[in-house]
Amino acid sequence: MHVNIDRLLLKTHVFPVWITARIFTQQYKYRRVPGMDIIIILDLQKLCCSSDSAQRCGLQQFACSWHQRFPQKQSQPVVTPALPIALECEDGVISVQSALYGRANKVICSEGRPPQQTSNTGCSQSGTRNFVKTRCSGKKVCEISTNDVNSPDPCTGTYKYLQTNFTCLPAIHLIACENSYAHLYCDRGQVISVFGADYGRQDKAVCYASRPPSQVENVYCSNPTQIVAQSCDGKNSCSIRVNNSVFGDPCVGTYKYLQLSYVCEYPTFG
Asked: I need a labelling partner for 245 at 20 to 30 A (CA). Which of 47, 105, 179, 262 fits?
């Protein structure tokens, strides 16, 4: 769905699906969330996407920072407790640079909130970056929400948000179904460097052939793993068996797959 209007109102009922809204030269992408209606209103006269005006923008800064594609394939999604966000790279894979759950300024996610809920700008949940990096780095698409990082509460009484900063890096993205092999290889003289790997299921349309619906319906099964990196880093080629004996079983009864990303690079010495 593409529209060119001064004011955009989107209300969703059919799940899940992506909606892309193009307003003049800017493109915004929204994901419909299961079990929810999302209403997003963008007023171009008040939409502040430049860094010099964003500080005066309130809710508009939230909209810009959540949906705008930044230069150099860099994005900064922000999510309030009601909505998950999807980090996505159309080209390459996600490389998480930073992540914050808490509050770092008074403007983001402040609409309709009393001053005492937004005044604490030194609130940060410990370990958020490592969690998001482990969950999302090396993937093409990754969904997270505040429910993943909100315990324990880092600052009671403060209205918090989750903000991530990531780039899209060129890499080889590989998926191998359960009970098969993942084969990684590089050109002569180069070695493997694994960005990330996850054994589980996040998509019904991957590795689903000849499987009953009950084995592919759980798309919230995620098990980030270092096993591939430990087995393959520094080698010219590498094959690894994809099964529960190697990676464990993060979701019993679900037919899983291994997704990973890696680059081929020339080894450094010294």
From this structure: 262
pLDDT tens, position by position, 213-250: 999 999 999 999 999 999 999 999 999 999 999 999 99
Place of tokens 């995620």: 222
Contact 106, 121 (CB under 8 A): yes
Name the residue ranges covered by the structural domains of the chain. Answer: 1-45, 54-169, 172-265
| Residue 196 to residue 242: CA distance in whole angstroms | 15
Task: Give the pTM.
Answer: 0.57
Q: Could you give the CA distance from residue 40 to residue 10 in angstroms, rounded to a whole number?
A: 6
Domain at 172-265, CATH class? mainly beta
Higher pLDDT, 140 or 54: 140
DSSP 188-253: TT-EEEEEEEEEEBS-TTSS-TT--GGGT----B--B-SHHHHHHTT-SEEEEEESHHHH--SSTT
Q: What is the CATH number of domain 54-169?
A: 2.60.120.740
